[in-house]
Amino acid sequence: MEVAIHDSWKPYLKEEFKKPYFKELVDFVKQEYSNYRCFPPGQEIFNAFNYCHFNDVKVVIIGQDPYHGPGQANGLCFSVKDGVTHPPSLINIFKEIENDLGVSYPKSGDLSRWAKQGVLLLNATLTVRAHEAGSHQKKGWETFTDAVIKTINAKKNNVVFLLWGGYAKQKVKLIDGAKHDILTSGHPSPLSANRGYWFGNKHFSKTNDLLTSKNLKSIRW
């Protein structure tokens, strides 16, 4: 089965694409997209991999679900297309970058500029039905994205994993902390951020410090 994913990932994930669960997942997603409005658009489902090639992965940010409002999701976690109002979590991410690095708040919420620098913006579930948060969870996506995390863990070194919120923190068990760096904090959503679990984590400067300490190029956040 041919999956519209960048060639750099195929040697590592081709066995995953052959597994029964993945075929069932593809059938489910095709049916959902035929019968309901779903996000992101079909050709953008694997954008996280198409913008960030396997050899370039330096940082992994794990989200849970794509945005489920019209025109928001673009296949990269926390990211929205140009011209789309920034969702609350993204606003808080940009505010933290502003406080941490003194980088002025950007107009565009499109994070493909990060992805092209080696930041894998990976949602655990890659699709969703319009206006129904979590509607495509537990259909096989999590098995696939866990396999992606395990592959990065096994095949690469010195990757910085940013785990924000309880759901992302569960993925710590898939990562070897001796080979990679793991930074955890509360989620950037208002509920968590307003309780003091997000702001001040300095994850963006810390990530760059970790990268430069390994002679890797820092990210222009």
TrEMBL record:
Q: Which gene encodes it?
A: ung
Q: Lineage of this protein's species?
A: Bacteria, Pseudomonadati, Bacteroidota, Flavobacteriia, Flavobacteriales
The organism named in the record is Jejuia pallidilutea
What name does the UniProt record give this protein? Answer: Uracil-DNA glycosylase
Enzyme Commission code: 3.2.2.27
Q: Which GO terms describe its cellular component?
A: cytoplasm
Predominant location category? cytoplasm
Q: Name one Pfam family in it.
A: UDG
The record lists the membrane-crossing segments as none
GO BP annotations of the record are:
base-excision repair, AP site formation via deaminated base removal
